[in-house]
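Progress against Task 2.4 (sequence-to-structure conversion) is shown through the following example record, which the project officer requested during the mid-term review.
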Amino acid sequence: MKNIIILLFICLSSLISCQIYPLGTSPGDVPDGAYIKDVNNELDKYVGVWKGNWNGKIIFLDLRKHKAYSPGVRSYYIDRIVGGRKIINSNGVIEIDKISNFNYNSSEFYGIFKSLVNGNWKRLRFYPDNMCGVHATLDITSFETVPVAKMTLHMEYEPNYLDSNCQHYNYVKEHDDWPVNFPKDIVLTKQ
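Structure tokens generated for the chain above:
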């Protein structure tokens, strides 16, 4: 009987602490252990494999909805988009493949956030590997569903300090750009 009461107490405690709030709720407005959930399926339109062409390369962007844990002073769960990319050059050689062995915990892309540039745009954060901590934002400047789903992305680097120990230091100094292997602008079509 004692074990049943303890088990009942644990179950009730977890139900109370895991309150659900809709996307767009500020994390500062939820209790510890809450879940900011995509209750209206707002993220579903972004989920899937997207394809585009850039400088003779084929780019695939695989976006998935994921329940992520956000630790901190007030820890919570949140539904967000995470993703990886695959780039195939004009000779059919795979230059990057973050899709075949997709890792939810270290994805290159995550979001969706409201853009600070234009309130109607949505935004993804982009963290490419081996770029000395440099990251970028991808603004979704246009999103269509008819006749086929298409989205236009515009990449902007986040302000960042260029460390002289970075493997790309000389390249960045010479080209005033990072060797990220992703276009500044691209239109992707949902596959």
